[in-house]
Amino acid sequence: MVAPTTPGGKPRQPSLAQLRAFAAVAEQLHFRDAAAAIGMSQPALSGAVAALEEALGVQLLERTTRKVLLSPAGERLAARARTVLEAVGALMDEAEAARAPFTGVLRLGVIPTVAPYLLPTVLRLVRGRYPLLDLQVHEEQTASLLDGLAQGRLDLLLLAVPLAAPGVVELPLFDEDFVLVTPQDHWLGGRSDIPRAALKELDLLLLDEGHCLRDQALDICREAGRTEGAPVTTSAAGLSTLVQLVAGGLGVTLLPRTALRVETGRSEQLATGYFADPAPARRIALAMRAGAARQEEFEAFAGALREAMGVLPVRIVEG
């Protein structure tokens, strides 16, 4: 038996209906039972199997008046047909999941100065409201996150803004103040009216290069009138180490309010000072690619996060 070709000379492709009919007959070894199993009339099923044999150019079944047997080729191709049908079913299931919001994989990038303090809230929200969402978290610095978003490695970012990045849409969540963390006996510890100008001459400890929080702190210092030559000690890769250096008396540092309870609760050698209004602050937002296929879903996620984060010491920014 020779497989027929199209007018262009290419072999004809079997249809899914033909594969489904053949798979049913291979399982039931009975035309009537196979037709009933897939909801097809017996003549239509017989025609579909015959058309498949013609398309493939091989005999799949040995038909007798009493029973149906698989030919050697039919034995081999029945397994292939089932594999194809299972793959198509998986494709349809995946497409259905893609149409449904808050299902499937969501690859969320988070900066290090946000991850330890906001992820508990994010994870509680996802577990409670979006149980079918497969949230995958990646903690990286801002430049790496933006590259991952642009390359499609990440779907959504949680970080400090503004970014001034082309092709990126920001969904603001909240503003949070910075506070001054000092050694216990520091003259600014415990005050609630610290002027920004106090930052001019302090021994300030900052994060390493590459952290956006370092850049934000330096901007705050410049706004306060701190000169470029004033001493700034850069000796920590994370906020936890930075706070421990403060506890050891090496200087003072700026912390976002969301990090305060976690980081200062580890030592009794620390004091906290609050700035006079308007206090220096940063804005935290979600960021997505412009024109993202899941834009509506991400906007709804931002709204849910604003609601969940209302209990934190922040000022919610309505979208």
From TrEMBL:
Residues 14-71 form the HTH lysR-type domain. Coiled coil: none annotated. It holds the Pfam family HTH_1. Keywords: Activator, DNA-binding, Transcription, Transcription regulation. SUPFAM superfamilies: Periplasmic binding protein-like II (SSF53850), Winged helix' DNA-binding domain (SSF46785). It comes from the Bacteria. Belongs to the LysR transcriptional regulatory family. This is Probable hydrogen peroxide-inducible genes activator.
